[in-house]
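Aim 2 progress update. The chain analyzed this quarter is reproduced below.
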Amino acid sequence: MDARRLAAIPPGVGLYVRDVKEVWRGADESGMETVVLSALQSLDCAGLVSITEGDDGWGRLTVPSDLHERLMSRWSAQEAARWHDRLLDNARALVPPGAGWWDLPTDAGYWWQHLVWHLRYSDPDAAAALVAQPRWQAARIRRLEVQGLLTDLTLVDSTESRAIASTINAVISGQAPGSIRDAPEQARRLLRALGLTAPAPSVPWPRSAVRAVLHVPPFTRDFALSPDGTWMVTAGKDGLIRVYDLETRTVSRVIHSPYDQLSHCAIAPDGSFFIAGTTGENVRAWDAATGEEKHSFRIGEAWRTVQSPSGTWIWYDMRTGTLGNVLTGWCAPTKPRTTRLTRMTLSGNGKTLAMANPSGEVSLWDPASGAQRAELPRQPHEIHRLGLADNGSWIALGDLHEIRVLELPGGHERFTLPGGGNTSSTRFATTDDWLAVPDKHRVHIRSTRDGTLLSTLDIHTHTILDCRLSPDRKHLMTLDNGDLLLVWDATALAP
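Predicted structure tokens:
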């Protein structure tokens, strides 16, 4: 393979290897995507590119800008144009006959982000015409991808593109404090400012429910929302804790933890401090106002913590099997007989704790006394997520094959939903009235009574990795593998 062709990979950005594989499939001869990945792996071994593995098992690739420039310098403009055009054939195959680029499928995340970049090399005039096309602008804005549209406009430097960017920036900078958190309202203002119409979406859903749109670092492993819904923290494989201001959608503070990587973070029920930790190490805590570490905080190695709207905050040490209360320091006098309880959840009233291990064992506990209340029959598959009714009257169990809702204490099955065959589909969230179930790039809101579909959230352009509720059940958060984190008003998601 001509190594110069690797210059057709966008530089300086993290790309999922699976996306690169899909984009290069059939670009030249059969098996070209395999040749490309092999070449990239060789460059990774030589330290020229970076390929790291994420929690979802897929590698993430970054081509340094200086390497891209060196490769481009050895390639004529005509050769570059021909090769980018071959790659664009794969994008053209996704668009219905007679339709435009703005009709790309919602889940074509790579092409929504990088189409204009490829067009700039293949056909600069076509790239300029696309970013000036109202339907492309409207499609980007309705997807709440304002920053993506600004990037498109930067790639095509023209009088018209600069004028459009100026209008967008004027709308953003002219908003009153606090209004930027209403992302749908910002989109409506931008559409009006650009003279664009907003036809009804093909799949109805409560778009006004979106409260914040954040772009988080690759491999963010955990996140938590403050009780007042104005800020949140993320923890990831780089060992950094990032505090986000949801009004400005910016990072307000970065804290270097003492660990190389982090697996868990949470915010206290009163919002006064937050914690973070990693497997095999003690949890640390930081003051929310100052960012200073709270050295008096000691609960040991908490593999996971869970909260309820009532303020109950329970931690579990997978190594010792100890259960305890984060705020009081109390430890349960008994320990679960089963080991490696890797899944846990609290009922809304804080009176029932459910725990499960990879062997399919599920037990119910009293978090106040530490006494075990019941043990459900062993499940046929590993449980990936649990959900409980506010009063503990039913439990939802999710594995790779299905999500089942069972009545408690008897275990009578209320209904079953088929699974998607992957861990993403099992990372559902529950309220008393509905389940939020990821399905590739969408989230289906289903009734907890019988599984009936109530609504569908269709805004992510990448596969959703996680879906969870804030402890007070007022906000739903969804994170996709394109590093887009959305915060939704949970009260507006179902009829």
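The chain has eleven helices and 29 strands. The radius of gyration is 24 Å. These observations will guide the mutagenesis experiments scheduled for the next reporting period.
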